[in-house]
Amino acid sequence: MGNWRVLAWAGGGVHGAVYQAVPVDIERATPGALKLALIPRDPRFAREVELLSRVHHPNLPSLRDSGIWQHPGGTLHPFLVMDWVDGAPLYDWAQRHRPSSQQVLRLLAHLARALQALHAQGCLHRDVKGDNVLVRHSDSLALLTDLGSGRYPDAATLTPGTLPPGTPAYRSPEACLFELQFFRDPKAHYSAQPADDLYALGVTAYRLVTGEYPELGEPVRDEAGTWHLAGLASPAPLTLNPRVDVQLNALILRMLSLRPEQRGTAEELAEALEQAARSTNPSSLPRSLEAADMHAQAPAESSPTPSSIERAGHPARAQPWQFRLAAAAALLPLLVLGTLLWRGPLLTFQMGRARLNDGGTTGLGDKAVPTSAVAAPIPSTPGGPTEDTPPEVLPGQRRPDAKGRCARPQQTPLNGGCWIKTPLAREECDTLKGSMFKGTCYLPVPHHERQPTSHPVRNP
Fold it and tell me: Options 3.40.1010.10, 3.20.20.70, 3.30.200.20, 3.40.47.10; which CATH number does 4-83 get?
């Protein structure tokens, strides 16, 4: 592929595939992360190349090459090559390393500096989240990756709709209110600002130290018909996790401010984070911010009640602007299961305070593409993301009969269990205790009888 030789496949997605590759004409060269578009002439790749060409920073991927690869069938597929990052996604890294408040402050400062570099050039990331952050193993440096949804001055609009591309759980209050106000206007289009990136960083930080997503309060409409939010419905991080340092708690709440101007700039935020990291005494901190330690003792719940869904990241109260964003996750799968399954109960596996993954991206290298069932364009070595492993059967799940068939034609036999294939993104799939396999969400089909819910469930 151009001047690059593929060594191994590292991840696949709806829009692209990531490979580890080395230059053909350079011996003992360091590997790169080659990202290939699966959609011919995909304009997202040109946008990412442009952004990486304009902005250079230690906390952003370094662009090494770009070009066009011609498929044997004649279609043209853009590709780009970045430095290979030997690291782990942010939330996975935190589970392994159990960081202190001081370490979290430093990681957030790295990301704020990356946003500062982007914003200084008039650019936006527009999809800041844990899955788009890699923490390097060698020095715990955080890199903000996947700029395919980003924007630079005078860039053409690639996606129609009221809101720009991004992950719903990380939307700013002003973006949510805009959609609520103008969702019926086909010409209305929200213009993201630097404050939107900072709010998404606040959601990332909140999720990192609590294991939950922050929720916005109930919107109200004034006499003029304008929608407003009363405030942040979720408690402060320190309330959910007493191990959070008070300075870190305050800075997370600052990033989650309803008023964009109160978040400040990325530069101001980076300086505040760095100052807090310097003034925090690591010797006085508890051993870690592993929020799951506190959740481990929570009692099992017998069914996906509204309160359990709320704790898993979906508000129990129906909020108007979330009809498009969360209705499919909270209502449609239950309706589908109610019609496709026999008359037995719906899913009864423990939901609790779920450790959610972001809906959207997976893979090594730059973590830039969402996992999908699309076949890799180039033969690759086996191994890589967990989405290539068939889901494990859960306790109480229906199994195929002796002929390998499930009870209803809409149910799919897979790896010794019966499943419902859905179009849910990973975030919503994890919330309902489904499993992602080759980019598709599989929800387990329970037996008719209500099963005990005290069995341990696997981590998503």
Answer: 3.30.200.20
Give the long-range contacts of residues 135-141, CB within 8 A, separation 24 or more: 135/87, 135/88, 135/89, 135/90, 135/93, 135/107, 136/85, 136/86, 136/87, 137/86, 137/87, 137/88, 138/86, 140/97, 140/103, 140/106, 140/107, 141/58, 141/59, 141/110
Q: Classify 394 as helix, strand or coil.
A: coil
| Cα(22)–Cα(20) distance, integer angstroms | 7
Contact at 8 Å (CB) between 180 and 320?
Answer: yes
Separation of alpha carbons 57 and 36, rounded Å = 23
**Cα–Cα distance list, 3 to 11, 38, 49 (Å):** 21, 19, 17
Q: Is 247 in contact with 276 (CB distance < 8 Å)?
A: yes
pLDDT of the residue at 257? 96
Instruction: Give CA torsion, residues 126, 130, 134, 138, to 10 deg.
Output: 140
pTM over the 0.85 mark: no
Please report the pLDDT score of residue 438 as a whole number. 86
Give me the residue spans of the domains in the chain: 4-83, 87-295, 319-352+387-444
Which residues 6+ apart lie within 8 Å of 49 measured at CB?
A: 63, 66, 78, 80
| pLDDT tens digits for range 287-338 | 466 554 544 333 333 333 333 323 333 333 334 344 344 443 333 334 333 3
What whole-number distance in Å separates Cα of residue 301 and Cα of residue 267? 44
Residue length, the chain? Answer: 460
Nearest to 373 by CA among 282, 295, 441, 327: 441
**Main-chain phi, psi angles of 175, to 5 degrees:** -70, -40
Low-confidence ranges of the chain (pLDDT < 50): 284-287, 292, 294-357, 359-385, 448-460
Q: Which residues is 12 bridged to in the sheet?
A: 17
- 326 vs 121, 308, 323, 353, CA distance in Å? 33, 15, 6, 17
Considering the domain 87-295 in this protein, what is its CATH number? Answer: 1.10.510.10
Element (H, E) at 18: strand 16-23
Residue-level pLDDT at 288: 62
Per residue in 434-448, pLDDT (tens digit) is 888 888 888 888 764
* pLDDT at site 360: 42
